[in-house]
Structure formats: structure tokens, C-alpha cells
Design goal:
Length: 133
């Protein structure tokens, strides 16, 4: 029996947005006990901004679920740092049910988000002033 690719196609879930409260629900979900990359330590550390929104995008499926277990995904979580106004990227496990409950960003909003995120990154120059030869 072949196993389907564990990689998640970008269009399958898109980019989702989560509030602090929704990330608490991910942490406290009793049906998702096998999470290896849980969001709990991040919440417990106090680094997660409670007012801002955080971006979630699944990267890979977490293997084949066992009997009675719900599918889950290893996701990128680009979270807003509390009190710093900066974002940090980490990996977390999110159940499929919780992932589907998060709002999906539409293309226009997603483009604005990408521009904002790119605006936070340092810009480097190519050797020679970046001029093409």
C-alpha cells in the first residue's frame, strides 16, 4: 500500500489566522494529545501577543492517524511577539478540526500580509551594488 505524500499543498488549507484564544484551544484540545510540537510552551513563556493575530500554515501531515485519532498537521506559526511588535516563526502541531476552524485569508488580505511581513525583514545588497552585468 502506498502512502500519500505527507506534504500539504498550499491550496489545500491556505494561510489561516489565529487569535490568542484560538491558540489556547489548540493547546487545550483533549483529542490532540500526540502533539510533539505543541503550542503550550510558547503560550506558557508569555511570548505570544494576546491582542494580535497569528498566521498558521500547514506544512506536512503528521503521519497516518491511529484508530480513533484525528488527523493533524505540522504547521508554520508566524506569531506576534508580546510587547515587541516583531514576528517569529516556529513549528507547531494542529489538529485538522482546529485548523479548519481558523479563518482562511483571501488573496487580497494575504497579499497585504506578505507585504507587511516582508517589510519587517532586513534588506541586504548584492555584491557590486546589486547591478546586473
Amino acid at each position: 500500500m502506498e502512502h500519500p505524500s505527507m506534504q500539504v499543498a498550499a491550496e489545500e488549507f491556505g494561510v489561516r489566522v489565529a487569535s490568542y484564544g484560538q491558540l489556547l484551544e489548540v493547546r487545550d484540545d483533549p483529542s490532540h494529545t500526540r502533539a510533539r510540537a505543541g503550542v503550550g510552551p510558547l503560550i506558557d513563556s508569555g511570548r505570544l501577543d494576546r491582542e494580535g493575530l497569528h498566521l498558521v500554515m500547514p506544512m506536512v501531515r503528521n503521519g497516518v492517524p491511529q484508530a480513533g485519532e484525528e488527523p493533524s498537521y505540522r504547521c508554520y506559526l508566524w506569531f506576534l511577539e508580546r510587547g515587541r511588535g516583531e514576528r517569529t516563526l516556529v513549528l507547531v502541531d494542529v489538529s485538522e478540526r482546529r485548523l479548519k476552524a481558523l479563518a482562511r485569508l483571501d488573496r487580497g488580505v494575504l497579499e497585504r500580509v506578505v507585504l507587511n511581513l516582508l517589510g519587517e525583514l532586513p534588506i541586504g545588497m548584492l555584491p557590486g551594488g546589486g547591478q546586473a552585468k
